Amino acid sequence: MNELSGKVALVAGGTRGASRAIAVELGRAGAFVYVTGRTTRAGRSEVDRPETIEETAELIEKAGGEAEAIRVDHLQPAEVAALAERIDRLDILIDGLWGGDKHLGWGQPVWEHDLEAGLRMIRLGIDAHLITSHYLLPLLIKRPGGLLVELTDGTAEANAKYRDGTSLPFYLAKASAHLLAIGEAAELAPHGATAVAFTPGYLRSEAMLEHYGVTEDNWRDACARVPHFAISESPTFGGRTVVALAADPDRQRWSGQTVSSGQLAKVYGVDDVDGSRPDAWRYMAEVAEAGKPADTTGYR
């Protein structure tokens, strides 16, 4: 449980969902974790959800780790610059910044999608990531072996085509992570650092569980209404796979690639909290998108 002892990690946007779980698992594995985001107990971001960065830090400490929560709006260069000045060292940078779901006009073509909402998604999903890299990567390259993880939604193969039911601004914001990983990997390589894009599968985030009216304890009840939810995974699953990646001395073999929780789980032998090993993106391509009945046999 101490694979990352002595490492310093920063999870940008670690307020909830996959980012929160990654932060907790990094702390459980021994890393000191800085958690940044916009929602604190003193006030909420535009996402307007109750989860806070302080709660994430407390979950890390409950898991036996050490953490510090720092309120940062990563779209504000001055705030990110101040964050960089505050940190002496950085071994692992997880860029999970997003917060754009409320701006998403599902299924609306670009000429019908609210323009300001679309541009806000681009700012949250692309600009914030570039600002963060500009100020924090100089810390990551101080010593060889650094790891940068850009969170996204969908594998490179899944995002090689436009996914029906989303929207063009959302697609651009999320697909950009693949190019970020390619470009950052090239720029980090001379410094012995690794950059990847990472996507969880069908994620049982706080918002998704709430949307389906279930909890992590009874999530399978939602399968009666949404059968393919059977392939879903806990946020912890992704967190465990990212820890395995970070602890791999040969992780640079992944640099420039987009990796999924299911893919990493196979390589590193990682299971979800229920002991299963869901491979959601393969399932979605081979079962859900193929119009087959929900059946996770061979996929979890």
TrEMBL record:
Instruction: Give the matching InterPro entries.
Output: NAD(P)-bd_dom_sf (IPR036291), SDR_fam (IPR002347)
Matching entries from Pfam families are given as: adh_short
- Give the highest taxon in the source lineage: Bacteria
* Residues in the signal sequence: none
Protein's recorded name: SDR family oxidoreductase
